[in-house]
Amino acid sequence: MSEIREARLQKTNLLVSKGFTSYAESFSVSHTTNFLIQKFDYLENGQEEDFSVSIAGRVMAKRVMGKIAFFKISDQEGEIQLYLDKRIINCNLENQKLLSFEDIKEIVDIGDWIGIYGTIKKTNKGELSIKVEKWQMLSKSLQPLPDKWHGLTDIEKRYRQRYLDLIVNPQSKNVFKTRAKCISFIRKWLDNRNFLEIETPILQSEAGGAEARPFITHHNTLDIPLYLRIATELHLKRMVVGGFEKVYELGRIFRNEGISTKHNPEFTSVEIYQAFSNYVDMMNLTEELIKDIVTDACGSLIIKYQNNEINFAKPWLRISMKDIVKKYTGLDFDSFNGDFQEAKQATKSINVEFSSKVNSMGRLLNEVFEQKVESELIEPTFVMDYPVEISPLARPHDANNEMVQRFELFIVGRELANAFSELIDPVDQRERMQLQQSLRDQGDHEAHCIDEDFLNALEIGMPPTGGLGIGIDRLIMLITNSPSIRDVIPFPLLKPEITSNKNEKLPLNEVK
């Protein structure tokens, strides 16, 4: 590698000695590769078009045959062939300060960025090409690209050096194009329905809106601890209290939790709140939104994910947590009549393991669901009516205050969305937050803190509201058929590589 780098450095010096730069300031691009390929698809083999273009890209392949050479260059849209003829490139060298055909043979390597001027030609073998008239170096690459035949197969290196992954794996580039288009689509979809996007603080004095362990940092000037947000919920609800009836935020969330194929400590979500609505309204909104996203991104409501075919067109199942647990395990939690010990024995008989934290019927029901049912939900399924113990911000059912008006959407065994009719009773909300605070004081780092300002906002008065959160990364996994969340996050969190600076200390007050 050091020999290759040294050889390429010598080529940069050669360019400079000839009066040219190895790293250009700019280049005027007239067209993209994809535009040219589509526009001149009609050309017959061997036909030329006197259509002037200037195009820039990275050299991906190079083949020199005497006085003729063929390059492949890649830009953001795709690849196109360059046809280089010594007679054409060298014909004007005496009158202009230009790089010669010999220069491009000697100096240009695979990985370099070059700019070219030329016209359109379809070769006798039927490949659309740019017949190069002149060229210039835009950026000299000092390191070689991974072997084009084998690609970048080291999974960790793909995540750690994403730029290499994007260069040599077209599928990765397509994933992130799809991601960008889906995020843009969601914003337009909501904006067209009169939702207003609100920016809420990432640094917060109280981390609330979800059961999750926050990252903690410190503000030096104010000398106070701060938390990276674990949800946008409580601030968006404050906006509803203030009179905004339809709001959302699409942004980054931070949770100090484990890393897996479906978890990254930093992820993207969209949270949506609509006044005068309940969880059924949000269920309808969720189904409509996701169907429209899938149709726009995939062109069909039937898609493949790994070994599963997912049909979004069929009516999505809506079923309570108790009923779906009974369906998959045979356990009827209503039959226990509140006898927690009997329920524990029954769950143990089907090999459900749980900790001392599972100390109520509702938590036990949820544990059975997570261990025995969740992974079975391949087709889009709304699981409704959650226990109040695990839903401290959701409105209880009028007929049964042990269950709340909440649903989660599951597809391919993963939670994709979470929503509920919001709890707007400030007295009930305070009692639940106090219970959460007691759990936190006992060592449950994922329990809610008491947020006095939020409680004050509820006392001012919040209208009936439905709220919804959708995990964007998991949605993109589904749409792009990606097995891991790290495949759809450009720069996922990874453990730092071991370096020689073993004794280097981290700065004080860093996020922890």
Automatic annotation (TrEMBL):
GO terms for molecular function: ATP binding; lysine-tRNA ligase activity; magnesium ion binding; tRNA binding. Mg(2+) 1 binds at E408, E415. Residues 184-496 form the Aminoacyl-transfer RNA synthetases class-II family profile domain. One of its GO terms (biological process) is lysyl-tRNA aminoacylation. It is found in: Cytoplasm. It catalyses: tRNA(Lys) + L-lysine + ATP = L-lysyl-tRNA(Lys) + AMP + diphosphate. Homodimer. GO terms for cellular component: cytosol. Keywords: Aminoacyl-tRNA synthetase, ATP-binding, Cytoplasm, Ligase, Magnesium, Metal-binding, Nucleotide-binding, Protein biosynthesis. Mg(2+) 2 binds at E415. Belongs to the class-II aminoacyl-tRNA synthetase family. PANTHER family: LYSINE--TRNA LIGASE, CHLOROPLASTIC_MITOCHONDRIAL, LYSYL-TRNA SYNTHETASE. This is Lysine--tRNA ligase. Binds 3 Mg(2+) ions per subunit. Its cofactor is Mg(2+). It comes from Prochlorococcus marinus str. MIT 9302. It comes from the Bacteria. Its main location: cytoplasm. Its EC number is 6.1.1.6.
